[in-house]
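Purpose: get a first structural picture of the assembly so the mutagenesis plan has something to point at.
Setup: two entries, given in the order below. No constraints added.
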Amino acid sequence: QSVLTQPPSASGTPGQRVTISCSGSNSNIGGHTANWYQHLPGTAPKLLIYNNDQRPSGVPDRFSGSKSGTSASLAISGLQSEDEADYYCSAWDDSLSGQVFGGGTKLTVL
Amino acid sequence: QVQLVQSGAEVKKPGASVKVSCKASGYTFTSYDINWVRQATGHGLEWIGWMNANSGNSGSAQKFQGRVTMTRDTSISTAYMELSSLRSEDTALYYCARKFRGTVGLDVWGQGTTVTVSS
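Result (structure tokens, whole complex):
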């Protein structure tokens, strides 16, 4: 059972906009910033979003993040086949004195 | 280019210890924290701990406290993660990753090291 709750799966068709949610509590997302990663099979995770809504250089602006209260969201617009991957949220947790990840969401591009 | 290169796959017996290395290049090693994350087959990402590469200070997730030791050798820009009292549930792909400044986001990752615990 992950501290941060994500839907196990999401799907969309090419060109569509998809949103993935990440629900936490006051000890993590509520008091700290959220990050998002894309994880393709056989590769290392890739940082997509940091500090709720910031993109590292090289990440397309099709990817955007937001936070409201104790939840964060990742939106992917103009969905492409290469976006099919697992997506994870993360945040620092004061109660656990450590970083926590969501359980991951498997995105399927139909 | 900025990269982290990890040591090769390990096979260990239950109760043994494993030490994974993570060599940094392309940036000033002591300017960034190194984190360790693992993923067991069919499971999600699990945070193990962090280490300040300059001071050597470290912290770990509660479930690993007492079993994990994170160290570094600044002369060769290499971080190490040693996990002791291994059990079958520790079988996983272990990653080192650099913490992006001003956030707990991890912006550069190693290629991963497979650790298999089996009798």
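DSSP finds no helices and nine strands in chain A.
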